[in-house]
Amino acid sequence: MSCGEPHETDCSEVLDHLYEFLDSEMPDADRDKFKQHFRECSPCLEKYGLEEAVKKLVKRCCGHDDVPTDLRAKVMGRLDLIRSGQTVPDHDVAAGPATAQES
C-alpha cells in the first residue's frame, strides 16, 4: 500500500510496524516519524484507523478473557495471511479445517 508519493518513512516500514505504533512499543522518535507519515499519507492513515478500531473492538469485547494459546496462534496466522495479501481460507479460524459434513 502506498499513496505513490515519496515520504521520509516508507509506507512499507509504517505498515510493518503498525502494531508496535498502536501498542506504544516503539521509541518516541519513531512514533513521531509515523505520526508525520500519517499526516502525509491517507492510505496509511486509513489502515491505521481500521487497525485501531479493530483493536478497540477486540479489547471491548474480549479484553477481560484469557485467550487460548491455540486460538491466538490461529488468529495471528490468519492476520499474517491477510497482511501479506495471500488468500485466506473461508472456514472459521476457531473451528480448524472444514470437515466433509460441513462442505
Main features:
mainly alpha; 5 helices; disordered C terminus; Mycothiol system anti-sigma-R factor
Please write out the topology.
Layout: H1 11-16, H2 18-22, H3 28-40, H4 42-62, H5 69-84
Please summarize what this structure is.
Helix content is 59%, strand content 0%. The protein is globular. The C terminus is likely disordered.
Structural commentary:
There is one protein chain. This protein is mainly α. Helix content is 59%, strand content 0%. It has helices at residues 11-16, 18-22, 28-40, 42-62, 69-84. The radius of gyration is 17 Å and the shape is globular. The protein starts with 10 loop residues before the first helix and ends in a 19-residue tail after the last helix.
Percent range for helical residues? 55-70%
Number of helices: 5
Structural class: mainly alpha
Helix and strand succession?
A: HHHHH
Characterize the biggest β-sheet.
none
Distance between the termini: 35 Å
Radius of gyration: 17 Å
Backbone shape = globular
User: Strand fraction band?
Assistant: under 5%
Mean pLDDT: 81
Q: Low-confidence parts lasting 5 or more residues at pLDDT below 50?
A: 96-103
Number of strands: 0
Organism: Streptomyces broussonetiae
Protein name: Mycothiol system anti-sigma-R factor
Domain Putative zinc-finger: 11-44
Pfam family, one: zf-HC2
